[in-house]
């Protein structure tokens, strides 16, 4: 058998591996997705709106704080303490009827006594001077040269004359249209023990109207004491 010679296969020279070029990769800017960009814009808008709202509301807060500070700065008014009203003192039993004295019209004579903290001179002026009597006895008081007094109450006019007068001690009046044996009198005196000034009032009234007469004089003397400041 013939042997066939194998032709030798030439081996190609091995290629040297190429040196890998080191390329420095630049960091690529991350691109936000469109959804994230929209969210960022929305949050940015919200932050701007919130900042604007804060700026707008800040002065209001300051005003509120200022108002609150002012309210706190205002001191509370002190509590009112109740003070007892000044009351006149009655030296003796009020409205003492004198049974022995009854006028022609059937009215009974009675007296009332009041202790008043005032000098006798000033007190006497309050039962004789027209300007002083207009402060407590009547709305208007006029006096003529012949000792005629004109008293006015709510438009009603009554005229009285002076029957007797002792300076700084006593004055007695009589109504012009009344009975000749009736009168009303103011007497200024003082107590011997304490030296207090006492005003004694003498008047006539119907026995049924004794309480009303007492109430009327009480209210008038109370007005006098208030004007005196006693």
Mind explaining what this structure looks like?
By secondary structure, the chain is α+β, with helices and mostly antiparallel strands. It folds into two domains: 42-74; 96-228, START domain (Alpha-D-Glucose-1,6-Bisphosphate, Chain A, domain 4). The chain has helices at residues 34-73, 120-126, 130-133, 210-228, and strands spanning 96-102, 108-116, 140-143, 148-153, 156-166, 170-175, 184-190, 197-205. Strands 1-2-8-7-6-5-4-3 form an eight-stranded antiparallel β-sheet. The longest helix is centred in the N-terminal third of the chain and has 40 residues, at 34-73. The termini are far apart.
Output the strand order for the largest sheet: 1-2-8-7-6-5-4-3
Terminal CA distance: 173 Å
Biggest pleated-sheet summary: 8 strands, antiparallel
Which overall shape is indicated by the principal axes computed on the Cα atoms? globular
> What proportion strand?
25-35%
User: Given the helix and strand composition, which structural class is it?
Assistant: alpha+beta
Number of domains: 2
Q: In CATH terms, what is the architecture of the largest domain?
A: 2-Layer Sandwich
Tally of extended strands?
A: 8
């Amino acid at each position: 058998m013939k042997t066939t010679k194998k032709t030798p296969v030439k081996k190609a020279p091995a290629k040297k591996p190429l040196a890998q070029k080191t390329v420095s990769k630049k960091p690529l800017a991350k691109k936000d997705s469109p959804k994230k960009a929209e969210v960022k814009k929305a949050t940015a808008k919200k932050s701007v709106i919130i900042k604007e709202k804060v700026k707008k509301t800040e002065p209001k807060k300051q005003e509120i704080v200022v108002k609150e500070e002012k309210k706190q700065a205002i001191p509370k008014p002190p509590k009112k303490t109740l003070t007892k009203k000044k009351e006149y003192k009655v030296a003796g039993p009020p409205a003492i009827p004198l049974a022995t004295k009854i006028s022609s019209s059937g009215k009974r004579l009675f007296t009332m006594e009041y202790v008043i903290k005032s000098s006798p001179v000033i007190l006497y002026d309050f039962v004789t001077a027209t300007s002083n009597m207009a402060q407590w006895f009547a709305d208007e008081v006029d006096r003529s040269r012949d000792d005629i007094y004109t008293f006015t109450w709510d438009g009603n006019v009554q005229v009285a004359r002076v029957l007797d007068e002792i300076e700084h001690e006593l004055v007695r009046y009589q109504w012009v249209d009344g009975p000749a044996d009736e009168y009303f009198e103011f007497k200024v005196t003082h107590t011997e023990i304490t030296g207090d000034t006492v005003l004694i009032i003498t008047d006539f009234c119907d026995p049924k109207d004794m309480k009303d007469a007492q109430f009327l004089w009480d209210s008038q003397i109370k007005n006098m004491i208030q004007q005196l400041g006693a």
